[in-house]
From TrEMBL:
Signal peptide extent: 1-32
Source organism per UniProt: Lentilactobacillus rapi DSM 19907 = JCM 15042
Record's keyword annotation contains Signal: yes
InterPro entries per UniProt: DUF5776
Protein name as annotated: DUF5776 domain-containing protein
Short name of one Pfam family: DUF5776
Region (Disordered): 253-286
Domain DUF5776: residue ranges: 377-445
Length: 450
């Protein structure tokens, strides 16, 4: 916690009076490393790169980078901005990331500061707050975040801005990532009764055209097997509806599989035939089993997995690969929704929260199979009521379950006795025998003596 608070203080120095706009371009100066660079990435929530990354020397404010992309109105489609500050190993200032995330429903921009495995809630700003600060009328909170960035110099959405220079001592590298909403075309598989029995999503960059190959949901067959041409003209596009029919039930042949039917010579009183039962349509919304992680909860991969564009996993839909790694480095995701493949397999819709990695911020689908993905936080007490600290930077103990009121720091390898597990929002804490609390994060602690 000490490191993240120190990082938060450094970031506060790099936040202008414009409520939190990260200073870039002519505003940043790395006075201890003349080779320091700043890289600007522009992506969407589907993991697509909207423009090739641009890298310039820190302090090059004479050539501001326009991060507005044709077809993507920032006032409607700006979703998130991440800025990562990288400092040399052993520096007094730890590396970290400040993230601005838009909540369209509440019309607020949340601020999160993270360093290493810890994160800090930096509060939020409303559209009204930004209107008062900038002295302008805004359509949306998205536009407010974009116009705040225009005041920083170095990067801009609408009009280049300029404010006084600020020095960030020893800065080695800065990475600025703008994330726009991903463009999608919903796909619905509809039976003869007009019931939606399956869903899919076509994703891509605005302006992309292509052909979609339909795959019938389990228990159904396509009326037409031809590919379907599509054109992604905007962020939200009209739904493609694909007609399907229920597969006829397989009736076993009489006589143990014989295909010969013997007609009796004596008339037989016919028995009424049962009508062919109609298959129960698969629900458009997935049924969630008890083992599934809740929306908003963190999960991590215990084996190698891929992130996909849709719930139907194919090689062409892969967004990112996550190989199997050591426990403390396992990739983490936040579950934002659920979906099922056309074959009925449950998927998690997730956001990659591996700060500082190339995949950070990507949104897509991963398997919900518990052999591959499990909750990050423990849900039970260890049998021997012992836990061991495995995080190389150790773990703090606190007076309160919300991890406030630091009382002690435990080094890696410390073995602690716990008496209770406590839920806090969608996370858990272990209460120690002395009444203090530590995290229940499996990347930081492990049950038992190790």
């Amino acid at each position: 916690m000490k490191k993240i608070l120190r990082f938060a203080k450094i970031i506060a120095m790099s936040v202008s009076v414009i409520w939190g706009a990260v200073l870039f371009g002519n505003v940043l100066t790395a006075n201890a490393d003349d080779t320091a660079t700043e890289t600007v990435n522009i992506v969407d929530t589907n993991g697509n790169t909207l423009r090739a990354p641009q890298t310039i020397p820190v302090g090059d404010g004479k050539n501001p980078i326009n991060v507005n992309i044709s077809g993507y109105d920032p006032a409607e489609t700006l979703e998130k901005i991440d800025t990562t500050f990288v400092y040399p190993s052993g520096s007094d200032t730890p590396s970290g990331t400040i993230t601005f995330t838009i909540d369209d429903d509440k019309q607020v921009a949340h601020i999160t500061v993270s360093s290493g495995d810890e994160s800090h809630d930096g509060g939020y700003q409303t559209k009204d707050d930004i209107e008062k600060t900038l002295g302008v009328k805004l359509r949306t909170i998205n536009e407010g975040l974009a116009k705040s960035m225009d005041k920083t110099g170095g990067v801009y959405f609408y009009t280049p801005g300029e404010i006084p220079e600020l020095t960030l001592k020893n800065l080695k590298k800065a990475i600025f990532t703008v994330t726009y909403k991903g463009a999608t075309i919903p796909v619905e598989y509809v039976d003869s009764n007009g019931t939606v029995v399956g869903n899919d999503t076509i994703t891509g960059i605005i302006g992309k055209t292509g052909s979609y190959t339909p795959i019938a949901p389990k228990g159904y067959q396509l009326v037409d097997t031809k590919t379907i041409a599509y054109d992604i003209a905007k962020i939200t596009n009209p739904t493609i509806k694909i007609p399907v029919t229920a597969k006829a039930p397989v009736v076993p042949s009489p006589g143990g599989g014989s295909s010969t039917i013997v007609t009796p010579t004596t008339p037989v009183t016919p028995t009424p035939s049962n009508p062919t039962p109609k298959p129960t349509p698969q629900p458009a919304e997935p049924t969630i089993p008890n083992y599934a992680a809740k929306k908003g909860a963190a999960v991590y991969a215990i084996k190698g997995i891929y992130l996909y564009r849709s719930a139907n996993f194919t090689k062409s839909r892969q967004l990112a690969k996550y190989p199997k790694v050591k426990r403390v480095n396992r990739p983490m995701f936040v579950v934002t929704d659920y979906a099922r493949s056309n074959g009925g397999a449950l998927r998690y819709k997730v956001r990659d929260v591996n700060h500082g990695s190339k995949t950070a911020g990507k949104v897509g689908y991963i398997t919900a199979n518990s052999k591959f993905v499990v909750p990050v936080y423990y849900q039970s007490l260890p049998k021997n009521k012992k836990i061991t600290i495995i995080n190389k930077r150790g773990v703090n103990a606190y007076k309160n379950a919300n991890l406030t009121g630091k009382v002690k720091h435990y080094q890696k390898g410390a073995r602690l006795t716990v008496k209770k597990i406590v839920k806090h929002n969608l996370t858990t804490r272990y209460q120690l025998s002395n009444g203090h609390y530590v995290t229940g994060n499996k990347k930081l602690v492990i049950q038992g003596n190790y």
